[in-house]
Structure formats: structure tokens, C-alpha cells
Amino acid sequence: MTSRTPSITYLRQRSISDKPIRLCFFGMKHTGKSSLARSAAASLDIPWYDSDHLIASVLPEDMTLRDWYCREGILRFMELEYELTDRLCREQQNQSFSLSLGGGACENDRLMKLCSDEGILILLDAPAEALYNRIIPKGIPPFLDHRDPWGSFLKLYERRMNTYRSSCDVSVSLGEASLNRSEHYMCGQLPEIIARYYGRK
Questions:
Q1: CA spacing 20 to 30 A to 51: which of 31, 57, 109, 150?
Q2: Over residues 173-200, mean pLDDT
Q3: Could you report the per-residue pLDDT of 179-190, keeping only the tens digit for each?
Q4: Is residue 164 within 8 Å of 105, Cβ to Cβ?
Q5: Across the beta sheet with 48-50, what order do the strands follow?
Q6: Total number of domains in the chain
Q7: What's the CA gap between 149 and 164, in Å, rounded?
Q8: How far, in Å, CA of 36 to CA of 52, rounded?
Q9: Helix %, strand %, coil % for the chain, to 5?
Q10: Rounded Cα gap, residues 18 and 172, in angstroms
């Protein structure tokens, strides 16, 4: 039975006390990356950015992100997500920020290294079935097999979560908690996360 109570696990211990506070939120689609990253930014009074928004900002006005993804493919999407995240880090120089990234970021080695060099990698972990049930009502996304959407999602989930757990600094297991409860829990953990990795209060 899945717990409704969020919990946190520290997967990697390191010190980046000489850097600005940069929190990079990862996880599967519909784990609440954007909402929790935005709430964390508001709690710390720092800017919030979202990689999907960064990509959308450079697309033609009449093209959706999903349409562009279908036309250009995953490799071009990964390349652009890296390029725009790298640009953000350079343009912000020594500024702190919170950043939510796409669900497939774990398969983008350059992007993962960049985020690890720049800040703390926070994994949002939720049950596969719960995520699938949030995704499907909006239509089968292009990264799933339309002949077997659940089976292909489960394989994708297991592969990506294994990669995320081996790469991230912090894992926040959300269970079946509501979005509001997850946001409240995440914000409550920020002082410990910042103290642990940045040596600051």
C-alpha cells in the first residue's frame, strides 16, 4: 500500500557552499515538478524557471511544445533543453534560482552534469500507477507506445527512476499526498537541504 505521507531521502552527500543556491527539480511527468519548484522559489524568495517554458519561449507563436516535439524528435528536444538551461545558468551568473526540468532529463547526460555542477538535484518520486492515471486523460503522449501505453509507461518509469536515483542528491517520495500537502512538505524541508549542502541557514 502506498503511503500518503511524503518522506525525504538523501542520496548523495557533498558540499557546494561556494555556489549560489540553485535547486533543480527532476522526476517523471506529472510528479508536480513545476508546482513544487515554484513553491520552493516563493519560500526562498528566489526566481523560478521551467525548462518547458524556456523552450516554448523560442518556438514560433503558433506552435505548441508537443507539436514541436513530434516534429523535431527527442534528440533535438534534449539538445535545446540543455542549450537553454546552460544559457540560463550563464546569464544568471551568481544568482540563486529554482528550476523544474522535463521528465526525460535523466537521459540527457550533458544536462544532468550541468545541473549537478550548478546546484542540488532534487528527485520527486511518485507511484507509477498514480502518474499514469494523471497523464492518460490528456491523451497518449508521443513518448509512449500507443499499442501498449501502460506497458511502455511502466518500462519507461522503471528505467528513468533508476537513473534518477543514481544521479540525484535528494529524493522526495510524495506517495499519494495531495499537491498542496506535497508543496507544504517540500518547503518545510528546504532549510535542512540548504544547510546540508550549502552550509547555510
A1: 150
A2: 93
A3: 899 999 999 999
A4: no
A5: 7-10, 170-173, 120-125, 22-27, 97-100, 48-50
A6: 1
A7: 22
A8: 15
A9: 55, 15, 35
A10: 25
The pTM (predicted TM-score) of the whole model is: 0.92
Residue type, 201: K
Q: Are 120 and 25 in contact (CB under 8 A)?
A: no
Question: How crowded is the C-beta side of 95, counted as CA atoms within 13 Å?
Answer: 15
Q: Which amino acid is at 140?
A: I
Tell me which residue range forms the domain holding 183.
7-198
Judged against a pLDDT cut of 80, whether residue 4 lies above it is answered with no
Is residue 161 in a domain? yes
Backbone angles phi, psi at 30, to 5 degrees: 70, 25
Number of Cβ atoms within 10 Å of the Cβ of 137: 6
Residue 2 domain-assigned (yes or no): no
For residue 9, report the phi and psi dihedrals to the nearest 5 degrees. Answer: -130, 135
Q: If we measure between CA atoms, which residue out of 61, 113, 53, 37 comes closest to residue 82?
A: 113
The answer to whether the CB of 37 falls within 8 A of the CB of 99 is yes
Q: In the beta sheet, which residues pair with residue 75?
A: none
DSSP state of 123: E
- 80: domain CATH number is 3.40.50.300
Residues in the chain: 201
Residue 3 has pLDDT above 80, yes or no: no
150, 132 Cβ separation under 8 angstroms: yes
Summarize pLDDT for 114-160 with one digit per residue, the tens: 999 999 999 999 999 999 998 888 888 878 888 999 999 999 999 99
